[in-house]
């Protein structure tokens, strides 16, 4: 059975994605929800954090309306209601999207009218993508554009983070376009089956992965690869790196590997909770 500390750690990890917080900010917010009004100094002592760092974190959360402070002396920190915090975050994201869309359309029009472009699509490209949010955005785009088969081979923890991105929504679009998303994940506890199913992949299988990395490959198109996902749970979102390439040779090789892993894995629906044995 999962301990209270593990449950809190899991919730904190999800909060990082949903509310766009870093590890410390998520812990501060959760502890404020649990403890109620408390001084930043007392909270720093409870979390064993340097007071100066705690004050900076509190100021940042206050500026985003995630927490507020009283006018009393000493000041008390108060966490916003979770629903209100989510509403504030959604509003901020919607404003950012609208701004990007409006500015982007204007820029594209200028480029089309004033600049002659000469882009070659035959040369393989390689780029390193930094930041989990940027990586997930690339994956979401790949899924949306897929009209054939796309493999997602990764850890259970990575799947839990992807669930809170736009990727599950893009899977629906992919399927409407005639494509399919095959999710291959490592899992040693059959009780987590509903948790994996909610990701909504076209097909899902369980198997032993060759590494704790992340492989996403779109047939004949593009691939994204992360060397090691073993520290996803404990690392910051910004420390997540991936290689993205459309090199035909690399894409074909990784697609063949994923296809082999898929064929040697077990369909999710055939796993029996009572007879599930950890490998």
UniProtKB/TrEMBL annotation:
Q: Quote the InterPro entries the UniProt record gives.
A: TrmB-like, Tscrpt_reg_TrmB_N, WH-like_DNA-bd_sf, WH_DNA-bd_sf
**Cross-referenced Gene3D superfamilies, in alphabetical order?**
Winged helix-like DNA-binding domain superfamily/Winged helix DNA-binding domain (1.10.10.10)
Q: Which residues form the Transcription regulator TrmB N-terminal domain?
A: 15-82
Q: What is this protein called?
A: TrmB family transcriptional regulator
Q: Which Pfam families match?
A: TrmB
Query: Superkingdom of the source?
Result: Archaea
Q: Where are the transmembrane segments?
A: none
